[in-house]
Amino acid sequence: MARAGSRRSGGPPQARIRFEVDERGGVTVHLDGHPQSYVDLADPELLAFEYVQHLAACLDVLEPGAPQRLAVTHVGGAALTLPRYVEQTRPRSPQIVLEPDADLTAAVRERLPLPRGHRIRVRPQAGRAGLAELADGSADAVVLDAFAAGRVPADLTTQEALAQCARILHPTGVWLANLPDEPGRRYVARVAAAAQHAGLSRQLYVATLDVHKGRRFGNTVLVASAAPLPLAALQRALARSPFPTGVADEAQSARHRLGARPATDADPAGSPAPPDPGRWRAR
């Protein structure tokens, strides 16, 4: 989805933002030549990108403190695909979106308006600054889905950034991160090690089977928490995915990150550049 590391300027908004309508009436939002989000206003549960389906499945199996509602903080917004999904499936859930690109938010709200009665609050803030202002224990989930030029901003995946996320999560809350990586997933391992050192040591990896098997560059959703994770429920939810998907359990995830150097502010880990910029995440 959208970038949330730092504010971007330069160039008229219409040159940076493009809305592509498909034959179903759904809209892909492109930013600076990169596909960022897909939205179908008539069906907010239609999720075109496989990693968004994985993020949604992880949220579906959470049991929040308040019945049927989830308090979700999103780092990265773009067209607000996942917040719309949460609003559709768990109406009136309080959601905060940290999205520094005010031009993008304004264009999305004009072209793809949010539903009436929603509780989605978009703050024009960079991720780290926005996280620092949130209250302790205020979120059931924190979702990182932020990109700048097709890459995850490195300052959002360090041990220090994850300590902020751990602080604002309630004791059974989860951190979800969409992490693109090359076969071998060395970048994912460094982020997972950072999460472990930040206190989020219970971890699962969710990805399509070809990514799990190291056959191609692709997205892994890292699920991390201080509390046990609902592996069986998540596996059942993902079994319905149109994309063949697997879950690396806590033991497998721990083996993968073993020996990895945690990403820190002093030694950050940058996500690898996509092999085909502008098209690799399009569907």
Describe the structure.
- This protein has 283 residues and is of the alpha/beta class.
- It has a single domain, classed as Rossmann fold (3-Layer(aba) Sandwich).
- Helix content is 29%, strand content 23%.
- It has an eight-stranded mixed beta sheet, sandwiched between helices. The protein has a three-stranded antiparallel beta sheet with strand order 1-2-3.
- Strand 1 and strand 2 form a beta hairpin.
- The longest helix has 12 residues.
- It is globular.
- The N terminus and C terminus are likely disordered.
Order of helices and strands: HEEEHEHEHEHEHEHEHEHEH
What would you say the CATH architecture is? 3-Layer(aba) Sandwich
Q: CATH homologous superfamily?
A: Vaccinia Virus protein VP39
Helix content: 25-40%
Catalogue the unreliable spans. 1-11, 277-283
Q: If you average the pLDDT, what whole number results? A: 90
Q: Could you describe the largest sheet, including whether it forms a barrel? A: 8 strands, mixed
Tally of structural domains: 1
Terminal residue distance: 13 Å
Oligomer: single chain
- CATH topology title: Rossmann fold
Shape: globular
C-alpha Rg (nearest Å): 17 Å
What is the CATH domain class?
Alpha Beta
Quantity of strands, as a count: 11
Strand content bin: 15-25%
Protein name: Spermidine synthase
InterPro entries: SAM-dependent_MTases_sf
Region (Disordered): 245-283
